[in-house]
Amino acid sequence: MRIGGKEMNSKRLVVSILFGLLMGIICVILGSLGLKDVYSISLFLYVLANRTLIGFVIGISSIRINWILHGILIGFIVSIPFSIGVLLEPDKIGVFIASLILGMIYGFLIEFFTTGILKLKS
């Protein structure tokens, strides 16, 4: 597949999306263990979509930097909209910071499995 005049690794894209989806499921499971409130279906879908989007962006990205930094950077950038949405409730600054940090961690993990373990480079 060609994007922007450059050949894209479609296997990398599929794998990174699948790992993003898996990280979303793991995130929801781990999050539900630590929350006192019940997870709403909308929050479940949002977290799942956010982590899957991180995988998608990692899969299509053509940024040429170290894969570790790449995963962390993409995780941070993609998590910004959710994090800012959390700030609509003033007492949620901890959730704001945690969502950015967790986005970076999940971005790293998606990139770790896609590039570090499976060696699927962009």
Question: What's the short story on this structure?
Answer:
By secondary structure, the chain is mainly α.
Structural class by SSE content? mainly alpha
What is the share of helical residues? over 70%
Widest beta sheet: strand line-up: 1-2
- Count the E strands: 2
- The DSSP helix count reads 4
Principal-axis shape equals: globular
The unreliable regions are none
Strand content: under 5%
Order of SSEs, N→C?
A: EEHHHH
Question: What can you see in these coordinates?
Answer:
- The structure is a single chain.
- The chain is mainly α.
- The protein has one domain.
- 74% of the residues lie in helices and 3% in strands.
- The chain contains four helices and two strands; from the N terminus they run E-E-H-H-H-H.
- A two-stranded antiparallel sheet has the order 1-2.
- A hairpin with a 2-residue loop joins strand 1 and strand 2.
- Helix 1 packs antiparallel against helix 2 and helix 2 packs antiparallel against helix 3.
- The protein is globular.
- The protein starts with a strand and ends in a 5-residue tail after the last helix.
Topology:
Blueprint: E1 2-3, E2 6-7, H1 10-34, H2 41-60, H3 67-86, H4 93-117
Antiparallel strand pairs: 1-2
Helix pairs in contact: 1-2, 1-4, 2-3, 2-4, 3-4
Keyword list:
single chain, mainly alpha, 122 residues, two-stranded antiparallel sheet
